[in-house]
Amino acid sequence: MKNKFTWIPFYKELSDWLLGKQNSQPELISTLKEIGITGFRDGTERGKEITLQEIDPFTFLAYLNKFHSNEKRVEILQDLRHKLNFSCPEPTDVSGIPTTHPMKVHLFPWKTIRGNNDINVLWKLFGQVKEGKIDERLFQTALNIKSVGKGKLSIVLFYANPEKYVPLDSNTSSYLRSKKLGYTYDSFASYSELSEKIVKTFGKHPWEISYEAYNYTPERDSSNIDSIKILLEKLENELEDNIDYHIFYRGQSDKNFGLIPSIYREELLIKNEDKIFKDIIAQCPADFKGYTSTFEKLVKMQHYSLPTRLLDITTNPLVALYFACENEDVDGKLFRFEVKTSDIKYFDSDAVSVVSNIAKRPIDFSIESLRDLECEDFNDEPDIAYLLHEIKYEKPHFQNVIDSKDIERVFCVKPMFDNPRIIRQSGAFFLYGINGNKSKPAQLNFRYKVYIINKAQKQKIRKQLEALGIDKSTLFPEVEHVAEHIKDKYHLPK
Questions:
Q1: Taking the model in full, what pTM does it have?
Q2: Last residue of some domain: 195, 215, 235?
Q3: Cα–Cα distance measured from residue 41 to residue 376, given in angstroms and rounded to the nearest whole number
Q4: Looking at the structure, do residues 125 and 245 belong to the same domain, yes or no?
Q5: 88 within some domain
Q6: CA 20 to 30 Å from 392, out of 9, 174, 204, 427?
Q7: Which structural domain, as residue segments, surrounds residue 294?
Q8: Does residue 492 form part of some domain?
Q9: In this structure, are residues 171 and 155 in contact, taking their beta carbons and an 8 Å threshold?
Q10: Tally of CB atoms within 10 A around 486
Q11: Model confidence pLDDT, tens digit, residues 32-86
Q12: Burial of 168 (0-12, 13-18, 19+ CB in 10 A)
């Protein structure tokens, strides 16, 4: 992998340099400021903002990776190397380095609620990481600091020693699970053992595994389905004991279609999303009467086949298989998604309101220049303030705080089961945010597997599904669809 992982010598020299800086914490903060990093709030006291005066080495490293742009992260490393006059070669990439949440960089809570020893514990742990001897009790103490958490701690351990520790960020965890490997831990001993097992299994360095996880596409491991029986056998083999996630499915009649919502399938559609939304409600107000949230209105629009930022999914694999078997001229595709229970949202979620209301914003809505701002500064920006105005119109008690990450996420949303089609199809939705600006959809980060449905087998599978009660008349209970199904069944002229 030529020209990749050039950051490793720099990170080694940097972590060696950090080791002796516990008594120079204001200097560390000044160093970050001098290379263009911002956001050094330490909470508020009596309405006044507290400026950060102390820092641990893990948080220092996290600050280098709070930027969305890889180009910006490389620029930061190069400026830091020049400022510190390091002898290592200049880093030119950040391949395999996970980012940190720009609003959750610190590994310690705000000053007013911080434990007296929190930052010292993190310095001690960093020293032990460098020595290669970590005390279990100290590790647990660090893990229990508010603002740390298992995933975050594994990431900063990787920053400090990428030769030994595997980062368990969302991408890597999903990748490991797809390979039937563990992805969580409850002690340093179990984390260390897990890292060793992962490295041994892949025969690669932690940074190579992290890079592969980020670039992994499930299509590489797709398999073919030619009957209901084979599908159900494959799905049964995918089940695990004590799962902490829910399974959803989606069928697409053409295997070449991407996982993007209809509003993003043509440039003209996304350019006019706000007008489409307003036009349908203005011209058909009676149909939307009683729908109080933007999400509910998007679901209604989806029902009427208008383009939206929703993507239909289902909890029933046979329903997904039905849709994958439409259009017998091309191979179809069935997706099996795994969504952590904690990641599932409901129709009345605040985060769902945030992303749904992006539909009302014009095409020039963007957070590309805002995403790395601190929370307070982000929410003071005019575009975000207007989005807040839209949200508070439907949710008057919504707090004046939007998380920039939410705007760029895809949420799995369970709707109200208030119409027959959603009930019959066991329906749910992926709700898409944006990727920097409104013209690009957010990236889907849920783990999934792919099954290919051969076009030659579609007719046979459709007959099998009909025998089980899965057909157009049952999935689309509206009278016009039932009538159309009866015509097809008896080969009547249309």
A1: 0.76
A2: 215
A3: 10
A4: no
A5: yes
A6: 427
A7: 219-487
A8: no
A9: no
A10: 12
A11: 999 999 889 999 888 888 999 999 999 999 999 998 889 999 999 999 999 999 9
A12: buried
DSSP H stretches of helix in 48-180: 57-63, 70-84, 118-131, 136-143, 150-160, 170-178
Distance, in Å, from the CA atom of 489 to the CA atom of 53, rounded to the nearest integer, reads 74
Q: Tell me, what DSSP letter sits at residue 286?
A: G
Do 236 and 149 fall within a single domain? no
Q: Is residue 135 part of a domain?
A: yes
Q: Which of the 8 DSSP states describes residue 41?
A: E
pLDDT 10s digits, 221-254: 788 898 999 999 888 877 765 567 899 999 999 9
Element (H, E) at 439: strand 437-441
Q: What band does 305 get if pLDDT is binned at 50, 70 and 90?
A: confident
Per-residue pLDDT band at 477 (split at 50, 70, 90) = low
Helix ranges (H only) for 85-117 are: none
- The DSSP bridge pattern shows strands 310-314 and 332-340 to be unpaired
Is 38 in the same domain as 184? yes
Residue 90 is given by DSSP the state P
Q: Examine the domain organization and report whether 42 and 99 are in the same domain.
A: yes
Handedness of CA 21, 27, 29, 33 (dihedral sign): negative
Domain assignment of residue 1, yes or no: no
